[in-house]
Design a protein that fits this description.
- By secondary structure, this protein is an alpha/beta fold.
- Helix content is 43%, strand content 13%.
- It contains 8 helices and 6 strands; from the N terminus they run αβαβαβαβαβαααβ.
- The strands form 2 sheets. The chain has a 4-stranded parallel sheet with strand order 3-4-5-6, with helices on both faces.
- Helix 1 packs across helix 8, helix 3 packs parallel to helix 4 and helix 4 runs parallel beside helix 5.
- The longest helix is centred in the middle third of the chain and has 29 residues.
Length: 246
C-alpha cells in the first residue's frame, strides 16, 4: 500500500514496486490521477487496487481499509508517503491553515495509516513500514520551522514504532530525501511555478524514482536485515540548508 501515490515519490514507488512484480494498493485524493496510474500499471500486467481518500480524514480512511476485498487485506508493505510542505516564512508569520494541513497530513495521517495497517502485520508476524521522512527532520532550516518539525516527528515515530514491533518480524524504515524535483515546491509556494522552479536551479536534484529505488531495496532486503534509516541527498547537497549551485 502506497499513500499519496498519484505524484512525486509516491508515483515513483508505485512504478518501481510494479516493476518488482508486486500487487499494489494505491491511495490518493485525485480520482482521475488514481485511475490514470491504475490503467498505466495494469496495462503492464500489475494487479492494482485503488482507494480514494485523504489521509487527514480518519473516518474515511478507516472505511476504505475495512472495506478492502479479502484478497487485498494482508498488506505486506506500507509506504507512508502522503505529505507536503506549505509556506516558507518565519515561524512568527506562518499561516495557521498551512500549519494545520501539514500537521494533519504529515503526522496524524501517517499515524492513522500505521494504526490501521500495522496490527495485521504484527498478527501475521511479517510486514514492513516505510515512512517517507526528510533531511528536514534532522535539523531545521530557515523558514522551514513547522514542516521541519513534522518530519522530525516522522523520524521519532519511525524509531518508536521500530521499538514497539521489535518482538515481531515487522520492519520499519525511515527514508530521508533531500532535494527531490516533484510538485513539492509548487505545492509549498501555493502554485507559484516560477518560485518553485528556482528551488532546483543550478543543481541536479533527485527524482521520485531515485527514492523509490531505495524503498524497493529496503523492502527486498533479507528478512533478518532491517534498513532502519537512509539519508538520500543530491550530489551537491550537504544538508537540508547547504546546496552548492553551479
Amino acid at each position: 500500500m502506497i499513500t499519496g501515490a498519484t505524484s512525486g515519490i509516491g508515483l515513483g514507488c508505485a512504478r518501481k514496486f510494479a516493476e518488482n512484480g508486486d500487487k499494489l494498493i494505491l491511495t490518493g485524493r485525485n480520482e482521475q490521477k488514481l485511475e490514470a496510474i491504475r490503467k498505466e500499471l495494469t496495462g503492464k500486467g500489475t494487479k492494482v487496487h485503488t482507494l480514494l481518500f485523504d489521509v487527514r480524514d480518519r473516518e474515511q480512511a478507516t472505511r476504505c481499509i475495512n472495506g478492502l476485498p479479502e484478497e487485498w487485506r494482508e498488506i505486506d508493505v506500507l509506504v507512508n508517503n502522503a505529505g507536503l510542505a506549505l509556506g516558507l516564512e518565519p515561524e512568527y508569520e506562518g499561516s495557521f491553515d498551512d500549519w494545520e494541513t501539514m500537521i494533519d497530513t504529515n503526522i496524524k495521517g501517517l499515524l492513522t495509516m500505521t494504526r490501521l495497517i500495522v496490527p495485521g502485520m504484527v498478527a501475521r508476524d511479517r510486514g514492513h513500514v516505510i515512512n517517507i521522512g526528510s533531511v528536514a527532520g534532522d535539523a531545521a532550516y530557515a523558514n522551514g520551522n513547522v514542516y521541519c518539525a513534522t518530519k522530525s516527528a516522522v523520524k521519532t515515530l519511525s524509531d518508536g514504532l521500530r521499538l514497539d514491533v521489535a518482538n515481531s518480524a515487522v520492519r520499519v524504515t525511515n527514508l530521508k530525501p533531500g532535494l527531490v524535483e516533484t510538485n513539492f515546491s509548487n505545492t509549498r509556494f501555493h502554485g507559484d511555478t516560477e518560485r518553485a522552479a528556482n528551488v532546483y536551479k543550478g543543481i541536479k536534484p533527485l527524482t521520485g524514482e531515485d527514492i523509490a529505488d531505495v524503498a524497493v531495496y529496503a523492502a527486498n532486503a533479507p528478512a533478518h536485515v532491517q534498513i532502519a534509516e537512509v539519508l538520500i541527498l543530491a550530489t551537491h547537497q550537504g544538508s537540508g540548508s547547504v546546496i552548492v549551485r553551479k
